[in-house]
Task: structure prediction
Amino acid sequence: MKVLRDRVMGTDLMLVLPPRRHAPVLEWLRTVERTFSRFDPGSDTSRVNAGGPVVVSELFLAALHEACRYLDATGGLFSPFLGAELARLGYDTDFALVGTPEAAPAPPRAAAPAAAPVVHLDHDRRTVTLSPGLAVDLGGFVKGWSVQRAAQAQRESEGVPYGMIDAGGDLVAWRPEGGRPWRIGVEHPLREQPIGVLELPAGTAAVATSSVVRRSWRDRAGTVLHHIVDPRTGEPAGSDCAQATVMTGDLAAAEVYATCLVLLGTREGPPWLAGQDPDARWITVGRDGRVRSSAATA
Result:
């Protein structure tokens, strides 16, 4: 095994894989980045957001189809159609290029949130059509989805028995029964100290963290905004949860669940998660700094 460190999708990447597997995984993730970036005018995301039926790659169609499945499963609590809200709030520039952006105060949302976003996926023609006013932003979801697919390919197709792919702290790790366990540190978002260490089980495990601190900025009026938008309001999440970490078997699911915990808060979120995935383990940090966790995580 050898560690490779790089940057992709606006975040730090760490691969713990046999050296010969570094280049294929990195190229896959860079392809995902080019396909889904909101900030690249030639990406599938930008072309779809420009309107009309748009022919897209099979990669884009597959990821959006999966994201829509989670949209339905969560009753709209997770949405891949918040691009317009993020742009309105000032997140219309790549953090990696400009650092922390400064935005004008956000104008009011033009209308009340729709009951459900309207999108048409034509798998035969490979086209996507959005209803007016919608904009796709697959963001952290596609990061988790693509890392999960890369890990699955390494383990199942390439026969790599032990490895880890970590994209900005959201990761998939796998090992055989009896293999040395992976131990993953979780940082406190409000203090310069670790919360603790997760020991991942044998097989494949995924860990995702969603935080209102990671990507935040101030508008010119001094209001602190962040990138976790509540689909029910179109505004940054205002619950008492500053950060949520979820461990489960699939990184796309962990990304969705961690975001939903931040939206729902430290009291409502955990029972909701138990209804979605009873085996998921979680850690939340309140805006008051208090750490809570599932019994299996403690």
The CA atoms of residues 13 and 167 lie 5 Å apart. The radius of gyration is 19 Å. The first helix runs from residue 22 to 36. The chain is about 30% helix and 30% strand.
